[in-house]
Amino acid sequence: MAGICVIFDLDGTLVDSEGLCNQAFLDLLPQLNDTLGTLTQRYRGKKLAHILADLEARLCQGLPDAFERRYRQRVEELFAHELKPMPGVFEMLEAMNFPKCIASSGPLAKIRQALQVSGLAPYFGDALFSSYEIGSWKPEPGIFQYAAKAKGFMPSQCAVVEDSEVGVRAATAAGMKAFQYVPNGGASLRQNGFVTPFDDMLSLPQLLAHFAGHGHA
Description:
This protein has helices spanning 18-28, 36-43, 48-59, 67-82, 89-95, 108-118, 131-134, 142-151, 165-173, 204-215; strands at 5-8, 100-104, 128-130, 158-162, 177-181, 195-198. The chain is α/β, with parallel strands linked by helices.
């Protein structure tokens, strides 16, 4: 079996955090009229700076200087009490034995907290890559390219597991195969065979094994 590296997104892929991250906006900005579902769909995978700019435009007012700090604090509180891994993630990680890492748009402290609270930290150790450390945010390919190089793999040897459209676009821009997690009948992004949607984490090990054996150059 040929060697591959599996690069995981974190939020919405390994941990059920997208709703909590957007709940923090609703908690801090009661003037927002969005439902949690619409807000989550609007901001899934997006860079926080872009989200804050969009919120200011939609609210027709600037956010307080301390808003980002308060937002991070609220997310931390919600994670501590409510964050859970996505269904089947533990079993999936136990069943796959490829080199793996995490490449997330979140700050390193947030990544570490999410992994600790969800119980996933032992599976990844220090193989954690943050856009804030690298200076490249999805849909730019930089964070995936950096992770592949750090792990010693060519882009064609890398499988990226993502839930968001911006993450999938970043993976394909990096020349990597994307597996898009679309639970509950979500919409997937197909791009010339470079994207394989799946809706059950328990099916991922077999998909990765097929990619390792046949799917990459």
